[in-house]
Amino acid sequence: MPATLPYRPRPPLRVAVLLSAPWAFADDLCLDGVEVREARRYAQWRRRELEWTSMGAQDLPRALSQGRVDLAIGGLRATPALVAMARLARFSDQRLGAEDCPLSRGFGHVWAVSQDAWREWAAVKAYLQLVRHRPALARKPAAPTGAPGAQQAPDSLLNGSH
Fold it and tell me: What is the pLDDT of residues 84-97, one digit of tens each?
């Protein structure tokens, strides 16, 4: 009889958030926004828990290159620093249910993944490609604040450290 390996839970997906409405914002103790909702769907698709942290734009490239976070979201642009220190996947907010927001028209954002996280980068690209071809997946509303499944914002988002 073959030996079975012990179950190892997958580590949480560490997501750095640049708070930038309407893409990502803290609202009544809960993170929300177009990219936050999509990151939650991505984590569910990958069967991973999320661990959120808030960062400024200048800190994101270094955190990604040092492996302190796995994924960065929040209306990011492909700046030279981000291109040099992270793997990028194009996030098209128009495919993901934000076409009614006047700020979203013509914007091309990226999700940034740690340079060393090849598998995560491939999974992010595959997921965003899947969503592009199945827009109904992206239009599913997120759980309202306080509802089962709603995720609370960490203290770091609420104490003004962003």
Answer: 989 998 876 554 44
